[in-house]
């Protein structure tokens, strides 16, 4: 055992050096815990927890979760999603790394990793201990509330738990995890608030109902306004570090490629094969959200508000999929034999659906959501520069106390640890 510990300390030093080297490249991120809001791109179980047990959701069954978890995990992916990679980013600190080696690696080798492991950001509706972060994202959630859509003749049927309600959940939780004013301001200032992606479903509701591009443009200020008011609310209760992602290039989504085909010249982007009008619309939303964030930064110079460019990070993949190991960019891995392996009638997980043999070769998992492999590359991209300002801005403000070891995992193989570190290098 003494020998094993010695070897591990050497290993620990190597890890420190690797991360230190990566930190020079600007990959440093500092936060104690994550509170996350959003939709199915970051849901880690809330949707399934929000519906009756017999509610027929495909994510309740395999092949959802087949990668990494080996079972459905409430995520809309073959494996982990954006939040899992985000929530497990290493906080850079030498003392943390030693603590990490002591608390995570040693016990895991002696078979008790779970005792120390804080696995993933836990879904709020699952109950439990949220002192180390909570995920409020619900699959299907919109930024705007139900009445907004109903007034426009659209019934938002996917879930009623919109961004505003997720925020109410957080405010209700806060006094229980930080009872005193001092504890609250400490917790708020050292937490990272991941605000989405959210808003994509607001547009999806209109797009799948065949609403016009003009109608889509009309609601952009409302969607951006809802996200902005959630950010202001959090800043009012003391948030100091926020990451606000833009939307993804929805013109590259197999479901939309399948339901909006066209022979028109210039309809598809020559390089990627994605639908131009849908991607241009996303660019418009992303431009508006960035303008709003600029205003918020002026109003709150003491708050770090980072725009995470999910659009750029994923378009980068669609432009050169092979570079990232993706051989099938525009079809879904799990779906039907329809064009793009995607149709509304036979979605992934429905009877008659088929799964590709190797999801890591596909960008899209089920026609709407990405594979774990893609989510990982997107987060690596955000760490690598698809963020304004860079994520290292979260570290300004001096002395940093580490109260959570994000690297710990309940997975006996420590795969999360490996991924979190490899995403730095
Ligand atoms: C829904 O949002 C609108 C603003 O878009 C707000 O005026 C209204 O009070 C909200 N309704 C509910 C029930 O929260
Ligand atoms: C994709 O669709 C083609 C037919 O268009 C079919 O031959 C193939 O099996 C499908 N693959 C998957 C993984 O669904």
UniProtKB/TrEMBL annotation:
Superkingdom of origin: Eukaryota
A GO term for molecular function: hydrolase activity, acting on ester bonds
Keyword Iron-sulfur part of the UniProt annotation: no
InterPro entries in the cross-refs: GDSL, SGNH_hydro_sf, SGNH_plant_lipase-like
Any Pfam family hit: Lipase_GDSL
Annotated signal sequence range: 1-23
Keywords, alphabetical: Glycoprotein, Hydrolase, Signal
Keyword Cytoplasm attributed: no
Family note: Belongs to the 'GDSL' lipolytic enzyme family.
The protein's name in its UniProt record: GDSL esterase/lipase
Source organism per UniProt: Eleusine coracana subsp. coracana
